[in-house]
TrEMBL record:
The record marks 120, 151 as: Important for catalytic activity and assists the phosphoryl transfer reaction to Asp8 by balancing charge and orienting the reacting groups. The active site is at 13 (nucleophile), 15 (proton donor/acceptor). Its cofactor is Mg(2+). Substrate binds at residues 13-15, 29, 48-53, 56, 82, 120-124, 151. Its EC number is 5.4.2.6. GO terms for molecular function: beta-phosphoglucomutase activity; magnesium ion binding; sugar-phosphatase activity. The keyword Transport does not apply. The lineage of its organism: Bacteria, Bacillati, Bacillota, Bacilli, Lactobacillales. This is Beta-phosphoglucomutase. Keywords: Isomerase, Magnesium, Metal-binding. It comes from Levilactobacillus koreensis. Belongs to the HAD-like hydrolase superfamily. CbbY/CbbZ/Gph/YieH family. GO terms for biological process: carbohydrate metabolic process. The keyword Transcription does not apply.
Length: 223
C-alpha cells in the first residue's frame, strides 16, 4: 500500500471536486430529460456523474426506453442543446464557485511541490477553469477528445499520471463520482473520494466534503 511519503502528484477531476458544476450538469440533463419525456430520478442523476456528454445522453435515453428513437444526428443535436444550456450557466461563474477549501488545498499542493494534472471528462474544463481563475494551476490537462473510453475505464487517469511523468502509484486521484473512483483504482492510483461514503465505498479514502480535503488529513488516512 502506498504511503503518504510516496505521493508526488495529484490527478484531479473537476466537476463536483473543484467546483459545484456537477449541479449545473445535473440541472441541464434534467431539463433535457423532461423535454424528452424521460422520468428523472436522483439515481439517474448520480449515475451520470463523471460520464461523457454522449454517454450521458445514451444513459438518459436508455432510462426512458428511448435508446432506439433517435438518429445519430438527432442525438448530436440533443447533446448540443444540453451543452448550450450548461455553458450559459458556466459563463455566470466566478471564483466564488470554487468549492470550500479547494483553493487553499491547491495552494498547499503547489507550496509543497506536488505536481497537478486534470482528468475531467468535460470538454468545457478549460472554460470552467478560466471562470474560476484556476487555469494557472492546471497547465496539464488530459484532452477528453483523445480518449478511447470514458470513466470508469482507467485511460483518463493513466494519461493524467503520464502527463506528470509519474508512475500511477505515486499519484492520488481525486473524484466525486463512483465511475471516477473505479477509473482511479483501475489505473493503479490512490483514490480519494469526496462525498457519500456508501456511494464511493470503493475509494481508498473518502471525505464527506471538500473542506476536509487537506494534506494533513490525507496523511492521517494514508499513514
Ligand atoms: C464530467 C461531468 O466531468 O464531464 C459529467 O461529471 C459531464 O456530468 C462530463 O457529462 C462531460 O462534460 P461536457 O462539459 O464535455 O459535456
Ligand atoms: Mg466529477
Amino acid at each position: 500500500m502506498t504511503k503518504f511519503a510516496d505521493i508526488k502528484g495529484f490527478v484531479f477531476d473537476l466537476d463536483g471536486v473543484i467546483t459545484d458544476t456537477s449541479i449545473l450538469h445535473g440541472t441541464a440533463w434534467h431539463q433535457l430529460a423532461d423535454s424528452l419525456g424521460v422520468a428523472w430520478s436522483e439515481e439517474l442523476g448520480n449515475g451520470l456523474k463523471g460520464i461523457s456528454r454522449m454517454d450521458s445522453l445514451e444513459m438518459i435515453l436508455k432510462a426512458g426506453g428511448k435508446e432506439n428513437d433517435y438518429t445519430e444526428a438527432e442525438k448530436e443535436k440533443l447533446a448540443a442543446q444540453k451543452n448550450t444550456n450548461y455553458v450559459a450557466e458556466v459563463d455566470k461563474m466566478t471564483p466564488a464557485n470554487i468549492l470550500p477549501g479547494m483553493k487553499d488545498f491547491l495552494d498547499s499542493l503547489r507550496a509543497n511541490g506536488y505536481q497537478l494534472s486534470l482528468a475531467s471528462a468535460s470538454k468545457n474544463a478549460p472554460r470552467v477553469l478560466g471562470k474560476l481563475q484556476l487555469a494557472d494551476y492546471f497547465p496539464k490537462i488530459v484532452d477528453p477528445a483523445s480518449l478511447k473510453k470514458g470513466k470508469p475505464d482507467p485511460e483518463i487517469y493513466t494519461k493524467g499520471a503520464e502527463l506528470l511523468n509519474l508512475p500511477p502509484e505515486q499519484c492520488i486521484g481525486v473524484e466525486d463520482a463512483a465511475a471516477g473512483v473505479a477509473a482511479i483504482n483501475a489505473a493503479g492510483e490512490v483514490s480519494l473520494g469526496i462525498g457519500d461514503a456508501t456511494e464511493l465505498g470503493a475509494a481508498d479514502m473518502v471525505f464527506a466534503d471538500t473542506s476536509l480535503v487537506t494534506l494533513a488529513n490525507i496523511e492521517k488516512k494514508l499513514g
